[in-house]
Amino acid sequence: EPEVTQTPSHQVTQMGQEVILRCVPISNHLYFYWYRQILGQKVEFLVSFYNNEISEKSEIFDDQFSVERPDGSNFTLKIRSTKLEDSAMYFCASSPLAGEHSNSYEQYFGPGTRLTVT
Amino acid sequence: AQKITQTQPGMFVQEKEAVTLDCTYDTSDQSYGLFWYKQPSSGEMIFLIYQGSYDEQNATEGRYSLNFQKARKSANLVISASQLGDSAMYFCAMSTNPGNTPLVFGKGTRLSVIA
């Protein structure tokens, strides 16, 4: 069964450093998302991406964040200058075009990247 | 704006018993979808079940069923015949039309299954 993959599984970085989190969505999916989950808290939406551009972003997704789909398979989240409060689990998710099947709204999540900022 | 409320921070259930995890939602949209995800201690998010707002029948997937009461804006997850492997965090989430929009999650319920 196809799945979303994410690398690395765990990233430790120093405050102020740039990090890039990588995701490979399911190949025929068209919508891509990044979510984050601070330890012990709920999952929060960061940004969605469709047709090579950001379709929606939350208040959390400020100028420190950027997303890119550099080729036909990868989807990346960059944090330019990490802060302590960026420590969280970051989930990538993808979904197919709505209407293709009954669960067209289902988003398939990757296993997550645990980011630790020290 | 959409909102998901899960009022049970933690639940215990005896193995082989059924358990209901509560979820209420708030939205002004007429068309929306409701989801349940399981998050074991390893951290991944596992999709369990989906209910569309226009679906007349409650969704079922194996031991999972969704008790959808539209007038009450509730979408409770029922797990039948609980197993030790069901111990995890459970998140209720929703998204609205059109198409593929971000999920809004609740705070989750931690389920512990006791042998």
Structure, described:
The complex is a heterodimer of chains A (118) and B (115). Chain A is mostly beta strands. Chain A is built from no helices and 11 strands. Chain A has strands spanning 5-7, 10-13, 19-24, 31-37, 44-50, 53-57, 65-68, 75-79, 88-95, 108-109, 113-117. The termini of chain A are far apart. The mean pLDDT of chain A is 91. Chain B is mainly β. Chain B contains no helices and 12 strands. Chain B has strands spanning 3-5, 10-14, 19-21, 24-26, 32-39, 46-52, 60-61, 64-69, 74-79, 88-96, 104-105, 109-114. In chain B, the strands form 3 sheets. In chain B, strands 2, 5, 6, 10, 11 and 12 form a 6-stranded mixed beta sheet that branches. The N and C termini of chain B lie far apart (41 Å). The relative contact order of chain B is 0.34. The A-B interface holds A 30-31, 33, 35, 41-45, 48, 50, 56, 58, 89, 91, 93, 95, 97-98, 103-112, 114 and B 33, 35, 37, 43-47, 50, 52, 91, 93, 95, 98-108.
- Biggest pleated-sheet summary of chain A: 7 strands, mixed
Shape of chain A: globular
Distance between the termini of chain B: 41 Å
Element pattern of chain B in H and E: EEEEEEEEEEEE
Count of DSSP strands of chain A: 11
Compact summary:
The complex is a heterodimer of chains A (118) and B (115). Chain A is mainly beta and 118 residues long.
List the helices and strands and how they pair.
The complex is a heterodimer of chains A (118) and B (115).
Chain A: E1 5-7, E2 10-13, E3 19-24, E4 31-37, E5 44-50, E6 53-57, E7 65-68, E8 75-79, E9 88-95, E10 108-109, E11 113-117
Chain B: E1 3-5, E2 10-14, E3 19-21, E4 24-26, E5 32-39, E6 46-52, E7 60-61, E8 64-69, E9 74-79, E10 88-96, E11 104-105, E12 109-114
